[in-house]
Amino acid sequence: MRHIIETGTDGATLCFFDPAALLADFDERMADDPVSAFEELQKEGRFWWDSTGGDGAYLFHFYVDADMPEEIRRHSHDPLEMARLAVPSGTIWACGASQDFSSPATSRPSRRGRVGRREIPALAALVLTLSVCPSLAAKGASSSAPFVAQQAQQAQAQKVTKYTLPPDSYKKARDLSRIRFAGTMIGFFYGLAVLWLILRWKLSAKYRTWAETAFSRRFLQAIVFAPPLILTIDILELPLAAAQNWILRTYGISVQGWGSWFWDWTKGEIISIIISTILVWILYAAIRKAPRRWWFYFWVAALPIGLLVFFLNPLIIDPLFHKFEPLAKKDAPLTASLEAIVQRAGENIPPERMFWMGAAEKTTALNAYVTGFGASKRIVVWDTTIAKMNTPQIVFVGGHEMGHYALRHIPKGLAFGAAFLFVFFYLGFRSIGSVLARWGGNWGVHGVDDWASLPALVLLLSVFFALALPVFNAYSRHYEHQADQYALEVTHGLTPDSGQAGAQTFQILGEVNLSDPEPNPVAVFLYYDHPAIPDRIQFCLTYDPWSKGQPPEFVK
Ligand SMILES: [Zn+2]
After folding, report:
1. pLDDT digits (tens, 9 = 90+) for 123-145
2. N or C: which end of the chain has fewer CB within 10 A?
3. What's the gap in Å between 399 CA and the centre of ligand 1?
4. Are 421 and 298 spatial neighbours (Cβ–Cβ below 8 Å)?
C-alpha cells in the first residue's frame, strides 16, 4: 500500500521522525546540545530535518512504505536531502522536490497514489510534524507512538492467501526465471569450455614454464604459476559475469554502476588469487610427496584452511564489499523485537551478533543470512529488507535466521560439504590419470605432478560438483524449510497470526526479487537452494500444529 503526503512550505523547518525511533535518552541529549543530537539522529536514520527555501517553490513528498517514484527522485533538488527512515512501522522516504512552476505536472506524483483523506491523521501523527522549531516538535509527540505504529502496520499489510504478482511483475518474473535457467546451463558449459581452451592453447603449460624457469623453490613457482592462470580463467569468464549484472540491472534488481561492479570484481580476484595460490601450492606438494594418497592429505590440509576462510569471511572479506553496522545502532526497536524472540527460543544470540548490511547501493533485492563460525558467527539483515518490511515481517525473517543458528545448520552444512569434498578429491585422483594419458600430450602437460595439470583437475572437479549440485540443493532446501518452520514456531503467539506474517514476508520477498510464481520443477531440482516462494507461502498458511493440539517440533 502506498501513502503519500504532499506538502508545500515557505521559509519553515521541516522535521520528520517516528517517535518510537528516537532514543530513550532523547530529552537529555536535547538539553545538552540539540544541533549535534539532531545530526546524530539524522545520521542514524531516525530523524530528518531540513529548512525549506523562502521562495515557496518547494513541494515536500513523504512516502510511507512505498518507493520514491523515479519521476520525483529525478526532480529532487539535492539527492542528499532525500532521506529514508527505517522505523518500527516501516519505511518513510522524504524528499524535497523543487517545483518547476512552468510545468507543474513533472514533479508531482500521480493522483492515484495519494493518501485518502481518512488515513491522513494517523499517518501524520506517526511521521510528520511540521514546525518552525524542530526541538519542540520532537519533544512533543512521543507518548502515543506504539499504538499508532501498530495501527499503521495493520493498515499496510495486505492479507496473503497465495503468491501472486501484478501482471507486469508476473511477466518480468517469468522472463527472468527463463533467463536464469538458460544462464545457469550456459554458464556451466561455458566454464568447462574456458578450462578446456586454456589447456588446448597450452596456456597452462606456458605459465608452468615461466614458473619453473624463474624459480626453483616450489612456493615461489606457485606464486608465478597460479595468479596468471586464475586471472586468465576469470577474464575469459568476465563476459558472462558482466552479462549477468547487465540482466539484473535491466530488471531493476541490480542498481550497481559498472565502475563499482568492476571494482568488486577486482577485489574478488585479489582475494581468490591469494587463497587459491596457497591451496595450489599445498595441492602440488601433496601430489609430489604422496602420489597415491595426495587426495586425502590435501583434503586434510584444505579443511582447516576452509574453516579459517569461513571464520574470517564476515570479519575481513564481507566488509570489503558492503558496509556493516551493529543492528542495534541502526535499528534499536527492531533489535529489541528480535531479542524478544531470541529469549523466547531460549537461545543466546546477543545483539552484538546482529548486523545491519548496506545493500541498497548495489541491489534492490531483499535478504538476511547467518554466517561465520565461533566468534565471528552472526545474523545479518540487509537494509533493503528493513526498508520494505514491517516489524512482524522482519521478525519473521529474524526467526528464520535464528532457526539456522539454533538448529546448527552452519556446522552441519560444513560437515556435509567436507564429506562431499572427500569424495570429489578421491574421484579426481581416480580419473585425472586417464584424462592426462589421453590428452596430456596435446596440452603440454607432463603428468599429475606438473603444475600445468591444474586446469584439468579443476575441470574434473567442476563436473563432479555440477553432478552433485542437485543433492547439495535438496539438502539446502531442506534446511531452509526447517528454518521457515522454526520461524513460524518461534513467532507464534508473539506476532498476531504468525503464519500470515510469514506469508506476507515471502510475498514481499517474491515481489521484490521477482521470484517465479510457477517455477520449472527441473530448475528447482537443479539449482534452487531455497524452496520456491509459492511453496513457502503455502507452508506458512497451512502449518498449524497448535490447532491440532500437537506440540511444535523445534520451539517447545
Ligand atoms: Zn535461510
Report:
1. 333 333 222 222 222 222 222 23
2. C
3. 10
4. no
Residue 88 pLDDT more than 80? no
pLDDT of residue 62: 66
Establish if 469 belongs to a structural domain.
Answer: no
Cβ atoms within 10 Å of 141's Cβ, excluding its own:
19
Q: What percent of the chain has pLDDT over 70?
A: 74
Show the domain range for 114. Answer: 3-133
As a whole number of angstroms, the distance between CA 389 and CA 384 comes to 9
Alpha-carbon distance values, 349 to 326, 356, 380, 486 (Å): 13, 15, 12, 15
Give pLDDT tens digits for 220-261.
Answer: 999 999 999 999 999 999 999 999 999 999 999 999 999 999
Q: Considering the domain boundaries, does residue 55 fall inside one?
A: yes
Instruction: Calculate how far, in angstroms, residue 480's C-alpha sits from the geometric centre of ligand 1.
Output: 5
Strands in 336-388 per DSSP E? 354-358, 368-371, 378-382
Is 460 domain-assigned? no
Question: Which residues are placed with Cβ below 5 angstroms of ligand 1, an ion?
Answer: 480, 483
CB 345 within 8 A of CB 281: no
DSSP reduced 3-state for 48: strand
Q: How many domains, in total, are found in the chain?
A: 1
Q: Residue 135's closest CA among 38, 19, 7?
A: 38
Distance 286 CA to ligand 1 centre (A): 37
State the average pLDDT for the chain. Answer: 82
| Within a domain: 104 | yes
Residues designated catalytic: 401
Q: How far is the CA of 217 from the centre of ligand 1 (A)?
A: 45
Cβ neighbours of residue 443 closer than 8 Å, sequence gap 6 or more: 199, 200, 202, 204, 205, 452, 456
DSSP state, residue 85: E
Residue 102, pLDDT above cutoff 60: no
